[in-house]
Amino acid sequence: MHRDSNAIQFTALDAPAGGHAPSPGGPLSPDRLAALYAYPEEHGPWMRVNFITSVDGAVAVDGRSGGLGGPGDRRVFGLLRALADVIVVGAGTVRAENYGGARIPAEDRRRRAAAGRPEIPRIAVVSATARIDPSHRLFHDTAVPPLVIVSSAADPVHVRALEEAGTEIAVLPDRPRESGAGTGAARPDVAGIAPILAGRGLTRILCEGGPNLTGRLLAAGAVDELCLTVAPVLVGGNAPRMAVGPASTPAPLTRRHLLADDHGALFTRWTVARGRDER
Ligand SMILES: NC(=O)c1ccc[n+]([C@@H]2O[C@H](COP(=O)([O-])OP(=O)(O)OC[C@H]3O[C@@H](n4cnc5c(N)ncnc54)[C@H](OP(=O)(O)O)[C@@H]3O)[C@@H](O)[C@H]2O)c1
């Protein structure tokens, strides 16, 4: 049975010192829940990453994340979208999950408009190659045209096809070559995503994965925050972790809150510790 995700009860389990965390134990009102996920004020672009995993770390069941989500995660997923200016997603996830435009409830749209913000967050797809079919649902099942962020080495034929379909394209800068790195193809610098978005006035960034894009963002030091839902399930199999890449790139985190819903899921929020003002 599909339950109304607004009826889900969230409880705070942990209140680490020095943060804006809730007192443990009590149920959270919708406003309190929203306040716990508010973006930090007076900051530059802020890259929040949101994932759901099984207890054994799988990000998908049979190639899609939908098998992991319960009503509490749907609620937090929707809340994070309603708080964001822009939703960044890798082309692999767009293909796997058949992404369309974001849908925001009328009350949140009104709240956003009253704050002088667009009613609906834009989707920004990151693709090195630009190999995204212009007839994909992303381009027609949406109230806001998406932005496609490509590398300088993207196939010009694919870029043109997207532009002819009316899609705005932004190009990532190339990563500086290390000395002695040879003359191979230039590699895109995903640290350029946030400045591209900030240049369009989009500073509250929500990245919805997937693992390859998140791994690149992590390696580039471009992640500010992680919101992680742990679904009460074991999956096994060979699904990836939430961030993958060619090398390990440890990033110490500070825990901001730990919540539970009444279906056994856990909701954690962490910020990357780098000596800046972190909420
Ligand atoms: N559990 C969750 O919360 C969650 C969230 C998201 C996704 N997922 C799952 O994760 C899987 C998809 O993840 P994925 O890792 O395959 O895909 P992904 O990270 O969404 O996208 C990978 C694509 O991003 C582009 N890309 C990667 N690095 C880049 C760079 N440095 N510069 C420019 N573009 C770059 C490339 O696009 P092109 O190939 O177009 O060049 C690449 O193929 C699916 O099974 C999905 O269900 C789960």
Any low-confidence stretches, pLDDT <50, length ≥5?
Answer: none
Report the biggest beta sheet as strand number plus sense, adding barrel if it closes. 10 strands, mixed
**Strand-residue fraction?**
15-25%
Ions, cofactors, ligands: which are bound?
NADP nicotinamide-adenine-dinucleotide phosphate
- Percent range of helical residues: 10-25%
* C-alpha Rg (nearest Å): 19 Å
Total beta-strand segments = 10
Q: Please give the domain count.
A: 1
CATH class call? Alpha Beta
Give the helices and strands, then pairings.
Elements: E1 10-14, H1 30-36, E2 46-54, H2 71-83, E3 86-90, H3 91-97, H4 106-114, E4 122-127, H5 137-140, E5 147-150, H6 156-164, E6 168-171, H7 193-198, E7 204-207, H8 211-219, E8 225-231, E9 253-261, E10 266-272
Parallel strand pairs: 2-7, 2-8, 3-4, 3-7, 4-5, 5-6
Antiparallel strand pairs: 1-9, 8-10, 9-10
Tag the structure with descriptive keywords:
279 residues, alpha/beta, Dihydrofolate Reductase, subunit A, 10-stranded mixed beta sheet, 8 helices, globular, binds NADP nicotinamide-adenine-dinucleotide phosphate
Can you give me a brief rundown of this structure?
This protein is of the alpha/beta class and 279 residues long. 23% of the residues lie in helices and 22% in strands. It has a single domain, classed as Dihydrofolate Reductase, subunit A, CATH 3.40.430.
Task: Outline the structure in words.
The protein is an alpha/beta fold and 279 residues long. It has one domain (6-177, 186-272): Dihydrofolate Reductase, subunit A, CATH 3.40.430. 23% of the residues lie in helices and 22% in strands. The chain contains eight helices and ten strands. The protein has a ten-stranded mixed β-sheet. A hairpin with a 4-residue loop joins strand 9 (253-261) and strand 10. The protein is globular. The mean pLDDT is 91. The protein binds NADP nicotinamide-adenine-dinucleotide phosphate. NADP nicotinamide-adenine-dinucleotide phosphate binds next to strand 2, helix 3, strand 4 and helix 8.
